[in-house]
Amino acid sequence: MKLLAKWLLSAVALLAVAHLYSGVDVQSFGSALIAAFVIGLLNVFLRPVLVVLTLPVTVVTLGLFLFVINALMFWSAAGILDGFHVRGFGAALIGSLIYTVLGMVINSALDRLFSK
């Protein structure tokens, strides 16, 4: 149940990102659901590999390179899907930052809700 709620709220967060920032476009709630799913899959399977491969750069930049990896995951999802568009890497960076903050709020709320 928690996973389903997180997926639905992540789609809402993507719609919020598109509303707050003009560099990200989401055509519909269905597109947001699919995009949230694809971003989740990329974060589960591809992100850990990229984090390990770029570990030296991440250490040298004191972890700031992780923002670049998050932006690449966000931008990659937009490249794969039709109803989700990001206007360049800068827009992916800003969009992924907003999406990450909203995701942290969602996780915190769901942890409190489902811990009872």
UniProtKB/TrEMBL annotation:
<keyword id="KW-1133">Transmembrane helix</keyword>
<feature type="transmembrane region" description="Helical">
    <location>
        <begin position="28"/>
        <end position="46"/>
    </location>
</feature>
<dbReference type="InterPro" id="IPR007165">
    <property type="entry name" value="Phage_holin_4_2"/>
</dbReference>
<keyword id="KW-0812">Transmembrane</keyword>
<feature type="transmembrane region" description="Helical">
    <location>
        <begin position="89"/>
        <end position="110"/>
    </location>
</feature>
<keyword id="KW-0472">Membrane</keyword>
<protein>
    <submittedName>
        <fullName>Phage holin family protein</fullName>
    </submittedName>
</protein>
<feature type="transmembrane region" description="Helical">
    <location>
        <begin position="53"/>
        <end position="77"/>
    </location>
</feature>
<dbReference type="Pfam" id="PF04020">
    <property type="entry name" value="Phage_holin_4_2"/>
</dbReference>
